[in-house]
Design brief:
Number of helices of chain A: 8
Radius of gyration of chain A: 19 Å
Order of helices and strands of chain A: HHEEHHHHHH
Shape of chain B: globular
Strand order of the largest sheet of chain A: 1-2
Shape of chain A: elongated
Strand order of the largest sheet of chain B: 1-2
Strand content of chain B: 15-25%
Oligomer: heterodimer
Structural class of chain A: mainly alpha
Distance between the termini of chain A: 42 Å
Number of helices of chain B: 0
Distance between the termini of chain B: 29 Å
Structural class of chain B: mainly beta
Largest sheet of chain A: 2 strands, antiparallel
Chain lengths: 166, 46
Amino acid sequence: MDAQGPALPTRYTEKANTTFTTVVDAENRIGGALGCKAIPNAVFVDEQGTVRYIKRGGFDVHKPEHLALAESWATTPSLDELSTLSAAEAERVIKHPEALEHFRRGLTLYQDGKVDEAMAAWREGVAIEPDNFNIRKQIWAIENPDKFYDDKVDYAWQREQMEKGA
Amino acid sequence: MATQPAAYVDVGDQLPDITLPSLNGEPVSLASFRGKKHILFMWASW
């Protein structure tokens, strides 16, 4: 959003050694298209190019809740991705072998349309690895789709669920 | 708020394909990130 060109933002990206692509939007074309009246903003975009979440103003990765939101978006498979979650990906996010086994069994059941049995399998996985956000999230996403994909990712709600051990 | 027309892109809409120069001046299209989940972060040096 620098109207004076790339020189000023480059000072920051070089200092921070950023690895993401930075473009210079001197005329605020993106902000204008998305109805953003201030900065900083975050826009989460899915594989199909669909906007799934917008935080207009005040997005700050130094705030733990915003960082966690970005990490959760980047690392957690969405409901649509469940059937394509690779074995390697599941191994990366689930540490305990038995929990991983329950998670995979749940996926197979879910793909067969056996949603209740899939949920039961995931709950067994959660019992073994209670702090695994990724297993819990599959359950939450099915039970409460409105908290995930309807309007915005309700991070506060997820934290509440985690704290009360749901 | 009710009278405000939703003329801008919102949740559920396609991200518009806007092409802008990178820091080295090469054109970068927003659509070129399709196929992967991504985060568009809007900031400024000021």
